[in-house]
Write a structure and sequence with these properties.
- 0% of the residues lie in helices and 42% in strands.
- It has no helices and 7 strands.
- The strands form 2 sheets. The protein has a 4-stranded antiparallel beta sheet with strand order 1-7-3-5, with no helix packed on it.
- It is globular, with a radius of gyration of 16 Å.
Length: 147
């Protein structure tokens, strides 16, 4: 027998066709992978250092780091949580409202888990990260979108 399920989808972008105006806005620019930040004190990387406490947020400078230009509109990140208990990590553009969607969902113990994310860059070139149950966080970029 087949069982039903509730489904949920988040739209992260769209692709235009030849009827769209010629413009570089939204153009994806790939990069060699580069570390944007790493909260682990013993690891190299920009951004705040130290374990992100449960129910705490950090702001990470993303524009102007790891090849992402200051005027980028959004960035493609591989976000990783490590030493993370069961919970969730949410990322969103600095200066915007906290979203009702998770970016990453660690699954208990001292889990290390990664997930790809396309995130708009917010005020001052930052992205905020919230750790519901606490975690060390790091992110690598593989590209950005022009504004």
């Amino acid at each position: 027998t087949l069982a039903g399920a509730h489904l949920l989808a988040d739209v992260t972008g769209y692709v235009t066709d030849e009827s769209a105006a010629v413009d570089t806005s939204g153009l994806f620019v790939p990069l060699e992978p580069g570390r944007v930040f790493d909260t682990r004190p013993a690891e190299p990387g920009n951004g705040p250092k130290g374990f992100v406490a449960p129910e705490a947020s950090i702001t990470v400078q993303t524009a102007g780091v790891a090849g992402v230009p200051d005027d980028a509109a959004a960035v493609v990140l591989n976000v990783t949580a490590t030493e993370a208990p069961t919970g969730f990590i949410t990322a969103w553009p600095t200066g915007s409202d906290f979203p009702l969607a998770s970016t990453l969902n660690p699954q208990g113990g001292a889990d290390t888990r990664a997930n790809g994310a396309i995130l708009p860059i917010g005020a001052g070139g930052g992205i905020d990260f919230y750790a519901f149950s606490g975690a060390h966080l790091l992110a690598d970029t593989t590209g950005y979108f022009l504004g």
